[in-house]
Design brief:
CATH superfamily of the largest domain: NAD(P)-binding Rossmann-like Domain
Distance between the termini: 26 Å
Strand content: 15-25%
Strand order of the largest sheet: 3-2-1-4-6-8-9
Structural class: alpha/beta
Radius of gyration: 18 Å
CATH topology of the largest domain: Rossmann fold
Order of helices and strands: EHEHEHEEHEEHEHHHE
Number of domains: 2
CATH architecture of the largest domain: 3-Layer(aba) Sandwich
Shape: globular
Number of helices: 8
CATH class of the largest domain: Alpha Beta
């Protein structure tokens, strides 16, 4: 199958590392004009240069998507540079999980701003253009806790569950305008987050052994790669994913207890 995103303008938030840069790479390889967003300008520059070494061109924009004003300004810059946005991947935010009674009001608000309101605000900006052109793709990156929240999984599990409801509501409204909205639910994917946790928890252990131990509850027996995640994101964002909307797909090697 020849998956193409030729000349589509795609935005990937949280795009400087891990899943985000893998998705940006796959989109660019498929012909899209890609904008990557993250808070850190240095990380963005490094990501852009890494892709450029492989012959892939992306634009990078420093943006704190937890802030409405930053989203609005960055949206204006992207559309001025690249044109109307066809594909939006809402990928910002790392996992934050602790016992319910430990989560303060400030933590709840920070998590909701970064993981839920960022997706709402950015999607609201791209929606009219997608609607007018009768073509759009929005992918909300969540995690499997959205379907099956575990103990000590707040605030992330709640923010992500709200993101799943948002996905379905938007898909139902967007269908008439050929705006397809889906969620991809992360299980255990090798990323910078896990590299940092390895350094903190088991610096004397081989990283492959560390991830193998983590993946004991995964039916496939291993953690996934960001590239595997990106392959599905590219399909959903492409012309070939034209009849898939309103879904929340587990990308987890079978780990989730919920289909």
């Amino acid at each position: 199958m020849n998956i193409t995103m030729k000349d589509r303008v795609a935005v990937v938030t949280g795009g400087s590392k891990g899943i985000g840069i893998a998705v940006a790479r796959r989109f660019a390889e498929s012909g899209a004009r890609v904008a990557i967003l993250a808070r850190g300008a240095a990380d963005l520059k490094a990501a852009r240069e890494r892709l450029a070494r492989d012959g892939l061109e992306v634009r990078d924009y420093a943006c704190d998507v937890s802030k409405a004003a930053d989203i609005s300004k960055t949206y204006e810059k992207i559309t001025a540079d690249l044109g109307k946005i066809d594909v939006l991947v809402n990928n910002a935010g790392t996992s934050r999980a602790m016992a319910f009674e430990s989560v303060t009001d400030e933590m709840w608000q920070e998590d909701l701003d970064l993981k839920l309101f960022a997706a709402i605000r950015f999607s609201r900006l791209v929606w009219p253009g997608m609607k007018g052109r009768k073509w759009g793709r929005i992918i909300n990156v969540l995690n499997i806790g959205a379907k099956a929240p575990a103990a000590a999984s707040t605030p992330t599990s709640v923010s992500r569950a709200a993101g799943m409801a948002l996905t379905k509501a938007m898909a139902n409204e967007g269908g008439a305008h050929n705006i397809l909205v889906n969620a991809m639910l992360v299980g255990l994917i090798v990323s910078d987050q896990w590299v940092k946790r390895h350094a903190q928890r088991a610096p004397d252990t081989d990283f492959d052994a560390f991830t193998h131990d983590l993946a004991k509850g995964v039916p496939l027996g291993r953690m996934g790669t960001a590239e595997e995640f990106a392959n599905l994101a590219c399909f959903l964002a492409s012309e070939q994913g034209s009849y898939i909307t309103g879904t929340a797909i587990n990308v987890d090697g079978g780990r989730s207890p919920v289909v």
